[in-house]
Every structure is written in structure tokens, then in C-alpha cells.
């Protein structure tokens, strides 16, 4: 997006672009979560199967994913940026 096209956007379009970017970023975060955890699971099972260290990584990163998802899909419904129009 060029500077000229960004300046010509209305406030509603800017809010919609921000929302679309937040949704895209949330899905990318979720994709990275699954990819990295699958790799860590494989590394863990191949190197030290008697000690499952990947569970802590999965749980704590999962808490972050849950908050990120709630922020994008739950709280945006109530705080959807319409206050920016005032």
C-alpha cells in the first residue's frame, strides 16, 4: 500500500484493514505455534524421551495463544474501533 492510497482511505476502511491484519497475525501465530511444537515434540522424543520438556513449552505458549485469540476474536467484538471515529 502506498502513502497516497493510505491517505485516501476512509476511517472505516482503516479500521477494517487493522482488523484484517490482526486476524491474519493471529492465524500466523497459531500456525507457528503448531509448527514449532511439532518440531519440539519430535526433538524431545528423539533425544530425551524419558523427560518430556516440550509440555511446558506447549502449555505456556498456549496461554499466550489463548490470550491473543481472545483479544482478536472476543474483545474486538466489544471494542471494535468505532470509538476511533469520534
Structural summary, described in words:
The chain has 86 residues and is mainly alpha-helical. It is 78% helix and 0% strand. It is built from 3 helices and no strands. The chain has helices spanning 3-7, 11-47, 54-78. Helix 2 runs antiparallel to helix 3 (54-78). It is elongated and about 60 Å long. The two termini are 25 Å apart. The model has no long low-confidence stretch (mean pLDDT 85).
Q: Helicity, in percent?
A: over 70%
Question: Element order, helices and strands?
Answer: HHH
Indicate the overall shape. Answer: elongated
Are there runs of 5+ residues with pLDDT below 50, and where? Answer: none
Percent of residues in beta strands: under 5%
Let me know the largest β-sheet. none
Helical/strand content category: mainly alpha
The N- and C-terminal alpha carbons lie at a distance of 25 Å
Number of helices: 3
Quaternary status of these chains?
A: single chain
Give the overall average pLDDT: 85
How many β-strands, per DSSP? 0
Question: For the CA atoms, what is the radius of gyration?
Answer: 19 Å
Give the tags.
single chain; 86 residues; mainly alpha; 3 helices; 78% helix; 0% strand; elongated
Summed up:
The protein has 86 residues and is an all-alpha fold. Helices cover 78% and strands 0% of the residues. It has helices at 3-7, 11-47, 54-78.
Record the SSE blueprint.
Elements: H1 3-7, H2 11-47, H3 54-78
Helix pairs in contact: 2-3
Amino acid at each position: 500500500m502506498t502513502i497516497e492510497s493510505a491517505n485516501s482511505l476512509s476511517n472505516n476502511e482503516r479500521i477494517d484493514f487493522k482488523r484484517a491484519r490482526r486476524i491474519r497475525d493471529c492465524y500466523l501465530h497459531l500456525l507457528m505455534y503448531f509448527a514449532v511444537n511439532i518440531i519440539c515434540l519430535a526433538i524431545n522424543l528423539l533425544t530425551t524421551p524419558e523427560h518430556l520438556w516440550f509440555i511446558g513449552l506447549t502449555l505456556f505458549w498456549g496461554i499466550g495463544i489463548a490470550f491473543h485469540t481472545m483479544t482478536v476474536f472476543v474483545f474486538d467484538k466489544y471494542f471494535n474501533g468505532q470509538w476511533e471515529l469520534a
